[in-house]
Amino acid sequence: MKALRLEAIGNLFVREVDRPSPGPGDLLVRVEACGICGTDRHLLHGEFPSTPPVTLGHEFCGIVEAVGRDVSDIAIGTRITGDPNISCGRCPQCRAGRVNLCHALRAIGIHRDGGFADYVIVPRKQAHEIPLSLDPVHGAFCEPLACCLHGIDLSGIRAGSSVVVLGGGVIGLLTVQLARLAGATTVILSTRQATKRRLAEDVGATATVDPSASDIIEAIAGPAGLVPGGVDVVIECAGVAETVRQSTRLAKSGGTVVILGVMPQGEKVEIEPFDLLFRELRLLGSFINPFVHSRAAELVASGAIEIDKLISRRVSLDEATSVIAHPPAAGEVKVLVVPDRV
Fold it and tell me: I need a labelling partner for 8 at 20 to 30 A (CA). Which of 111, 155, 201, 237 fits?
């Protein structure tokens, strides 16, 4: 079968490899679609820890084609979306219910072979059933949506909240929609790209801002801004130093900042501790998606989240190498890899 292999940092190739066989508690899943994530680019460049050689792809959906001998509660032919994050269940963090902070966390598509392939092995406990009537590329959105759900849960958004989302990629656009579903009445998205600002307004943003056209702090939180004094919640979704610096200045006193975007490992940003203290800001990191993947699958299946407008294009495994290796095109949101039918 074909697989997109990270063979070493900087070396990504499509290879012919043996089709895997499921272990006792595993499923063999024929991949129907797998989303390209910014993390895949970080993995290629050694900016996020992984264990190459490994098949990338952690946002996948597919059909169960075989099950291990200990699996009896899921039928062959079922469509599933996979939660890639596998915790040990034994360490202190797991015993405390913080499985995303597991000391031995391993992820499909990062530490073990993932969904940029014709087939992928998924532990039964990591598989969530979704309807066969659902477009499989929608199923590939469950993983990024689950990450956004965790950030929304941490943020404390409630009815009437004001929210700023920094970054207009797929994470930002999903977060805009979830913030509105959580009850926020003001949701402002900041991005330089006009196409993404229009898209944000199409999917629920009440306002958008171009940070290259004016001082974003004044435009949003200044005396004549959209929300004078700052917003209740800022969710940073771009994963760049500039937006992280902006985030604390856009929150009101007593507000919350959630860092959801992934910055390269080792990169640093200056933040003034006195500002956090004096204005009593809550600054939180949001890492992956503990216990929310099933909620994400239900939301996707319900149609409550706009997905089709977020899909830029669909590419083959052979084309995916170039897509991952290069920065996204202007205005591009989400590229889905659809393996050749096998």
Answer: 237
